[in-house]
Design a protein that fits this description.
single chain, alpha/beta, Aldehyde Dehydrogenase, Chain A, domain 1, Aldehyde Dehydrogenase, Chain A, domain 2, 2 domains, seven-stranded mixed sheet, five-stranded parallel sheet, 15 helices, 20% strand, binds 2-aminohexanedioic acid, aldehyde dehydrogenase (NAD+) activity
């Protein structure tokens, strides 16, 4: 680590109140943990920056009990009052935006602007949740029976398990936590063990806010291994909802454990997102958008663009433009404001990228640009442009790295078929000025993804929409719109205010 990064990190940790982070946090204090040690690394240097003692299954139990206890009181706090507490959390995040954004950038390796963007996303969802706390609406129905009234109400569900990935160390927790909290649910957060400092910093902020508001135990953290803590959380019948972000493989395991116990899952899994560029598209716009979506966050978003479907008329020109732009992408220290692409998270990620490019060559694809590991400390690579065919095996997979597969298509119909021809279904986009083509892409016979964009890339969604995707992406929706419903239980109520007992469907049962 360079001296300046070390200084930045020390300052950041000091201001965030993180002297000696421990893993389990229950009821507003850090507990002593008994699991193995996780070492956090700075991916830009490969050097260790912190050691965190992880939770054991026993530590998980202590945290779980605190969450359960908190649920008993939190569910009775009026929703708008819960919203006030989330407002305070949002304000505290505003105050710490610079420090937390820097910490995200140091521990995850994404560029500072994206680190700050993540914290902004947390602030945005807090604001959204404050408003939502006054809008947890149920419908009322006209009863078919005289002097009867029917309506539905939404009650808090219970402690929610939130499992997050390394690539969004703080924002994805916030999508879940802010919404769950206004819905009346405590949260037990299991972050990726690759980014424990970010999680501990967020927890420290939560602890301060919740202590001041007199409601500890609503936000809880357990840093732990998948085998011990993860499995305990999945199997725990006290946890009615597991919201998880990660690979399709991980999602399958979650569904396997949570399904049989009739728990709910909200799964946001892998993507294999395509951008279609038609002959009439604004190529300047398309080039900028595709570069951000494919190279931004070093290709480590679930929404990153992995496949670029080029209509034949512009394929050569778009390829040339991208080669030029890729050559100008500044790769390096994520804290340097001029950098556009930081490192991959770790050596495994670099190797997975290299293996994928090997497979590309083996399957007859051609690496047109980049794809080399950079000879410097840290896990830096060049982003890669690859000429590929839609049916290549490697193209079906989500390699969590900046590899962009360029595939030629004849027109919008073939583009839709290729867009949909993978097992994942998260995000998709089309660049065109042809209204008919755009509407076809958005129609019921168009993109089969949870997100479909016109003239913007596949990544960088706002929190106001429901976020998630279909097929192997898991079907979950989190963040905005009416995603809150998953965090509550619906109760249909019928009240008889008459003196008769008419039965529904005209059934007679006279005694
Ligand atoms: C993720 O990569 O898991 O739409 C989430 C986006 C971000 C969220 C990505 N707002 O790219």
């Amino acid at each position: 680590m360079t001296t300046s990064t070390a200084q930045v990190l020390n300052g950041v940790l000091g201001r965030l109140g993180l002297g000696d982070p421990q893993s389990g946090v229950a009821a507003g204090r850090f507990l002593e943990a008994h699991g193995p040690e996780a070492v956090s690394h700075n991916p830009a240097t490969g050097e260790p920056i912190a050691r965190v003692r992880m939770a054991s299954a026993g530590d998980y139990e202590a945290v779980m009990q605190a969450a359960q206890k908190a649920f008993e009181t939190w569910r009775l706090v009026p929703a708008p009052a819960r919203g006030e507490v989330v407002r305070e959390l949002g304000n505290e995040l505003r105050r710490h935006k610079q420090d937390l954004g820097r910490l995200v950038s140091i521990e995850n390796g994404k560029i500072l602007s994206e680190g700050l963007g993540e914290v902004q996303e947390m602030i945005d969802i807090c604001d959204f949740a404050v408003g939502l706390s006054r809008q947890l609406y149920g419908l009322s129905m006209h009863s078919e029976r005289a002097s009867h009234r029917m309506y539905e109400q939404w009650h808090p569900l219970g402690p929610v398990g939130v499992i997050t990935a390394f690539n969004f160390p703080v924002a994805v927790w916030a999508w879940n936590a802010a919404v769950a909290a206004v819905c009346g649910d405590p949260v037990i957060w299991k972050p990726s063990h690759k980014v424990p400092l970010c999680a501990a910093a967020v927890q420290q902020i939560c602890n301060r806010v919740m202590e001041a508001q007199g409601c500890p135990g609503v936000f809880n953290l357990v840093v732990g291994s998948a085998s011990e803590v993860g499995e305990s959380l999945l199997a725990d019948r006290r946890v009615p909802l597991i919201s998880a972000t990660g690979s399709c493989r991980m999602g399958r395991r979650i569904a396997e454990v949570v399904g049989p116990r009739m728990g709910r899952t909200l799964l946001e899994l892998g993507g294999n997102n395509a951008v279609t560029v038609l002959d009439d598209a604004d190529l300047d716009l398309a080039t900028r958008a595709v570069t951000f979506a494919a190279v931004g966050t070093a290709g480590q978003r679930c929404t990153s663009t992995r496949r670029l479907l080029l209509q034949k008329g512009i394929a050569a020109e778009m390829t040339e433009r991208l080669e030029k732009v890729y050559a100008s992408v500044r790769i390096g220290d994520p804290l340097d404001p001029d950098t556009l692409m930081g490192p991959l998270i770790d050596e495994d990620a670099v190797e997975a990228m290299m293996r994928a490019l090997e497979q590309v060559r083996g399957e007859g694809g051609e690496v047109l640009w980049g794809g080399r590991r950079l000879q410097r400390p840290g896990h830096f690579v060049e982003p890669a442009l690859v000429r590929a065919r839609a049916d290549m095996k490697i193209v079906q997979e989500e390699t969590f790295a900046p590899i962009l597969y360029l595939i030629e298509v004849r027109g919008v119909d073939e583009a839709i078929a290729v867009n949909n021809g993978v097992t994942q279904g998260l995000s998709s986009a089309i660049f065109t000025r042809d209204l008919l083509a755009a509407e076809k892409f958005l129609s019921a016979a168009g993109s089969d993804c949870g997100i479909a964009n016109v003239n913007i890339g596949t990544s960088g969604a706002e929190i106001g929409g429901a976020f998630g995707g279909e097929k192997d992406t898991g079907g979950g929706r989190e963040a905005g719109s009416d995603a809150w419903r998953l965090y509550m239980r619906r109760q249909t109520v019928t009240i008889n205010y008459g003196r008769e007992l008419p039965l529904a469907q005209g059934v007679k049962f006279d005694l």
